[in-house]
Amino acid sequence: MMKCDVITLFPEMIRPVLAQSMLKRAQEKGLLDVRVHDLRDFTEDKHRTADDHPYGGGAGMVLKPEPIFRAVDAIRAGGEPVRLILTSPQGRPFTQQLAFEFSQEPRRLVFICGRYEGVDERVREGLDLEEVSIGDYVLTGGELPALVMMDSAVRWVPGVLGDPGSAKEDSFAGTLLDYPHYTRPATFRGLNIPEVLMSGNHEAIRNWRRKQALLNTIKKRPDLLGKLDCTEEDRRILKELNQERK
Ligand code: ADE
Question: Which of 69, 133, 154, 244 has its Cβ near the most Cβ atoms within 10 Å?
Answer without folding.
Answer: 154
